[in-house]
Amino acid sequence: MLNKCMIIGRLGVDPEMRYTANGNAVTTFRVATSRNYTGNDGERREETEWFSVVTWNRLAEICAQYLTKGRQVYVEGRMQTRSWDGNDGVKHYRTELIAETVQFLGNREDGGGAGGGGGFAPGMAVGADSEGDIDPDELPF
Based on the structure, what is the number of domains in the chain? Predict the structure, then answer.
């Protein structure tokens, strides 16, 4: 079986980093991808799809430190759907891209870029720790 997703897009907001009760770093951010196509009427159209991305441990720390809204990224990982019961008694679902690799694209001026010195160069890939599985009880949200 195969569960692999690869996207290239831009961050819609700055990443949010939290720590689980066990002290594991988790950073989430949303990435917009677009595709252009011609409709049946001959008009050119653009369609945008949003992905919720989750990074863990060292990868989470790096993404929180260097990514900002508007930055272009390549993300590779697996899709995972989780569910929880809301305060209103309704079951909620969220499908997320659990990142194994995040590659920073463009340059620092391209959509905000990385902050601070000693950062990661454009095109540098950053991979997840070997610990790839996520315990849903660890999620801080």
Answer: 1
